[in-house]
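Prompt: I keep going back and forth on a fold encoding question. Comparing notes only helps if you start from a blank page. Show me how you would write down a chain together with its backbone fold. Please set it down just below, with no commentary around it:
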Amino acid sequence: MKMLQKRYGIVLPVLCFLLSLSFSLHARPYQPKDEVVYKNWDKLGESSNHIDVFARVIKCTSASQVHLMIFNESSVDQVSKFVIEVTNPATQQKFSKEVSFSIIKATITKAECNSDASTNVLKIDLPEGYDPAQVKIAIEFKS
């Protein structure tokens, strides 16, 4: 009886582990059904004071937007100032937005569809006629 208990005592935990591993390998990150990512996070550039800026193009509910993510690699809090230029390759139309954002040392801040108002400056609405899958995004750092 004890031998049977020892044999099956190890089998059950191993079986549970393998089953949970199988589920976790097939798991996908949650993305709401009304969000469509056209371009995932691409690095736009790094400023001379070690601030990296990334962008993605996404449709949140009904509006297509450019979302920005800022990474302050520095050991001091900073205000990042830059201009984002969005180009529609089909028509060569362009528009730009100046961004000024305070960021704490060694942190990442990014816009999300459901993020609070503090990151609204990191969201840029695409005008009508801009194909979100084709837009080109450029950055020019001001400080």
In short: The chain has one domain: 35-141. Residues 35-141 form a domain with the Immunoglobulin-like fold (CATH 2.60.40). Confidence is low (pLDDT under 50) at residues 15-19, 21-28.
